[in-house]
Amino acid sequence: MKILFIVPKINNADGIARVIAIKANYLIDNYGYEIVILTQNNGNTPLFHHFNEKIDFLDMKLKGNLFSFIGSYRSQLNSRIKSINPDRIIICDNGLKAFLIPFLVKSKIPLILEIHSSIFIEEQYNKQNFFLQIKSKLIYFYKQFGASKFDKFIVETQESIIEWKVKNGIVIPNPIWFSTDKTADLNQKNVIAVGRHVYEKGFDRLLEIWKKVLIKYPDWNLTIYGKNNPDFDLITLAKKLEIEKNITFCDPVKNINEKYLEASIYLMTSRFEGFGMVLIEAMASGLPCIAYDCPCGPRTIIENKTNGLLIENGNKNQFVQALENLIEDENQRFEMGKNAKSSINKYQIDAIMNSWNAVLKS
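The structure assignment produced for this chain is given below.
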């Protein structure tokens, strides 16, 4: 079977690129699938994650204003699909143009839309005024309508099915991509967070929390792994809050699984999540996690007060108190870390990819 993945780019360190690499490699190695990945505007070089050498990478050049961009997108999509002639097409794109594909593609090849975000994802501050609220409602309606036109709509949590209000939805969570017998010793005075420096991930909220925690625990450090974003300048914010001495900003690394072992607690302050792959990565390393109960991922992964802590979304004081308690209570850290490691067995890659194989064959 030949599978065509359509994605804006896979040459970054983001979680979506990692998930595509994991799945594509597995489908080749275990089921003998042929895989073609179609990106746009040089979105497949140089690669950050490891992709099987058998994968065929193609790219489209898209530019111009809205109408010329969409026109070029339509013509190049149909041309590529005709030449590739895949058995299934998987679209991994959270952008608005992805929801146009059922209306742009002339082929009868089954279309699968794979979404890794909340429908309410916002990449910038949403100023509360009447016109922006109307715009947001129109966008949500457009997304739901477009999503309903795909043959299958894949999300990562049951809550996402409800959120998107689609009848063609299937839940397949992300797999844990590494296995390790190693477990963090949880004695390091270091907490960790991983993700893109964007509004959605809420690292600005994390820095405000960290400022309060340092009042009582000035000898602890926060390490954040992710690509710096000048438009969402966390480094400047850390200096403004006068906490830069207790924060280490690191570029994305391929061996992030080893970096979890150097921490004692994982923190997530996202405003929106489709799943939260970093949570299961951290938990696989035995880290207790504290996360805002944002839509949609954390509450699916974390069982509150058992393998981690869920905090009312946006409740800064509650988050600070939970983190301080976990810093102080070594026994609680160890117990939650132990439970965290054992609770991610359901995300083992074989079971997840069996579900994907069943969907593709159907």
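Interim note for the steering committee: The CA atoms of residues 41 and 61 lie 5 Å apart. The first helix runs from residue 15 to 31.
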